[in-house]
User: Which sequence fits this backbone?
């Protein structure tokens, strides 16, 4: 049996990437969410809490694990501190990803959920890229509905991300989340069938 085909799932803020990731999972496709793994490892009792506390004193508590605000205050704008943090987190994520690959070695397709795939790189770790996209007005409405979000913050975040049009141009596949959820789910299932049929397999 050939190795799994790895899809890199990405999309700008508010485009519905997490929703689409859940749709892939519902279709039986294994999904590796690096951010979720980091949250687990930095949560209460997580394997990275002790190392982060040693490197960044006062950034954790026993009951909550890593305090993102406190840690961010120490790291923000300090390249050396950021490199130290990445030196703790990245190897742990790589280990989790390797374990995920081993556990799902027989799956025909798997998904790597990579929010900043184009911004920070990651295309070399996947076979094909799926971009989740919606009209700009829908994106804006979704993001501004988030607690604590402001227009200024939204504009700043957009400025840090590769424009949606560029992402779609670079994608192998585009999933539209500006339509009803059931239609998006159908598009996800159709994409899985298309890819799997080319390999003579189906996840379920």
Assistant:
């Amino acid at each position: 049996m050939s190795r799994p085909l790895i899809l890199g799932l990405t999309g700008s803020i508010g485009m519905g990437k997490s929703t689409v990731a859940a749709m892939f999972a519902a279709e039986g496709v294994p999904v590796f969410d690096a951010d979720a793994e980091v949250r687990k490892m930095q949560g209460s009792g997580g394997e990275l809490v002790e190392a982060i506390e040693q490197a960044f004193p006062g950034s954790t508590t026993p009951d909550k694990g890593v305090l993102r605000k406190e840690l961010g205050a120490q790291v923000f704008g300090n390249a050396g501190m950021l490199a130290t943090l990445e030196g703790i987190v990245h190897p742990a994520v790589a280990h989790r990803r390797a374990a995920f690959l081993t556990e799902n070695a027989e799956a025909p397709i798997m998904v790597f959920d990579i929010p900043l795939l184009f911004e920070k790189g990651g295309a070399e770790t996947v076979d094909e890229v799926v971009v989740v996209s919606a009209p700009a007005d829908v994106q804006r409405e979704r993001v501004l509905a988030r607690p604590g979000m402001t227009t200024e913050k939204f504009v700043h975040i957009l400025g840090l991300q590769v424009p949606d049009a560029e992402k779609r141009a670079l994608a192998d596949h585009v999933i539209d989340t500006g339509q009803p959820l059931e239609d998006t789910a159908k598009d996800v299932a159709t994409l899985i069938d298309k890819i799997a049929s080319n390999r003579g397999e189906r996840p379920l």
In short: The radius of gyration is 18 Å. Residues 1-30+108-204 form a domain with the Rossmann fold fold (CATH 3.40.50.300). The first strand starts at residue 5 and ends at 10. The longest helix spans residues 79-103.
